[in-house]
Every structure is written in structure tokens, then in C-alpha cells.
Amino acid sequence: MRILVVEDEEEIASVFRDLLIEAGHTPVVVPSVDAALERFGAAPPDAILLNLYFYFPSVSGLDFLRQRPARWAEVPLIAVSGFPTEGQARECLRLGVLDFADKRISRDLARGLIAYLEVRATARQGGEGERAGERRRSLRPPLPIPVRIAGADGAESVGECVDLSLFGMKVRPHGPLALDSVAKLSFIPPDETMPLEVLAVPVREDSDGHGFRFVSLSEATFRRLDGVVRREAERQGWVQSELDALVLPPGVAASTRPAKDPAGGRAPRASGPAQ
Fold first, then answer.
1. How far apart are alpha carbons 72 and 172 in whole angstroms?
2. The whole model's pTM is what?
3. Is the pLDDT of residue 89 over 70?
């Protein structure tokens, strides 16, 4: 699929270009929002990686989010920033982006964001939906630990984690839970003493709980989640070769990539239930 990259720093743009090609997509890199609108006109791309840069000529990335033409409104989009803040993240999510990240994230984390962007773009085109795509790309070991949920209005509730992945969590609340925007989840992983806090958006609800998608992950939080998920998977019988196979995208040899890479792969046969 055609994925538009709006980024004025060539080094950053090259990283995204290489990762999109690796994932089998056709990247189209432009240095500004104006160039993007001129390039695509009435035929928007399949998905977008957008720098929020405030000093683009004429239109900033944030201006585009607030004023984008109707024909662009449904295109799946992930925003990045050179100086990310929680306030920026909340505003971007309010304006409909899928995720928000530091544009200098590692290739590991960037691969995960691209995989999620692909899933949502495919679902929009009438292909495989988010649920199946997330199951294919993400290990979700059961993890029954307490979770505190803080809504955007400051209201708090508690629940229990059902399962955890690098990019999301299912929570079974202890009481009514009404969320329609970004929340902050806080929990203490097994064998640790410090709470792990992460922004998340509710993506679905079923009889087993509420599914949350993590957003605006910092590199430190991403690495910490990676350690938690791997430890729990190993405790539940996953072997190292299966974990390595899970996290390598198709076509990439194990010797060319570090073992701890979140995107790609398939779940092994013996595992905890996938969400």
C-alpha cells in the first residue's frame, strides 16, 4: 500500500522509508504538508506518518489535523514529533490519530507502529480487521494483576488485567467503566516495585473486558513492556526459538536483527489465549 511520510529531516525520513520498504509498502516521502496535498490532491494515500512540525511552510502538521479535507479524514494516521509531550499526545488522539510518538524512536518500536498502521489501513479497505492483525503480530500472555484506570476527566477506577502485549492490554473493570477518550493505565508488573504508567485508548469491549491500545510509548516504557511480556511468556511455556520467531517480520533473517523486536512473526502453537 502507499504510505505517505511527511517529514522534513532527511535522516528521519530515510529510516521510515527503509522500514516501510522492508514491510512491503510503497513509501512516498515529502518534506511538508503543502507538498503532500499537492502530490496527492483528490486521491489520498492509504496511510500517513505525519510530523507535527509547527514550522512547515503555510500549514503545520497540527494545522493539517485540525483542518484536513474531508477526503483525508478517514485515512489512518500516526503523528510524530521531535519534542513529544503528553499534551500533544492527548490533542492528537482527540483529533483522530491512531498513535503519537517521538520521531527518533528505535527501529524496533517504529516497526510496531508501522504494523499497526498497516492493520488499520487494511481494515479500512475492507480486508483483514484489527483484531486478526493484532493477534498475528502480538504475543499476549495472561497476566492477572491490578490495574488503575484514570480517565481524561480525572475520574479513577480499578480493575484486573486479563492479558498484556507490547502494544495493549485487556482489563476487566471491577465496576462500570465509561471511557470515550485517552486514559492512563497504571500497574506494577510481577517482580517489580515501581508502577508502569502508559497512555491508552479504548478500542473494544466484550464479555471478557475492555481492550486498550497503548499510545505515545516512550522508548523506556516500550523496553520495559518488552521485558514484562517476555518474562510472562517464558513462565507460561514459550521457548526462546518461538519468541524469536514471533518477533521477526517475514523475510528478515534472525541473524540480522536483535531478538527483542516487537513487530512481525506468528504466534507459536503452545501459548496463552490471544485477544
1. 35
2. 0.70
3. yes
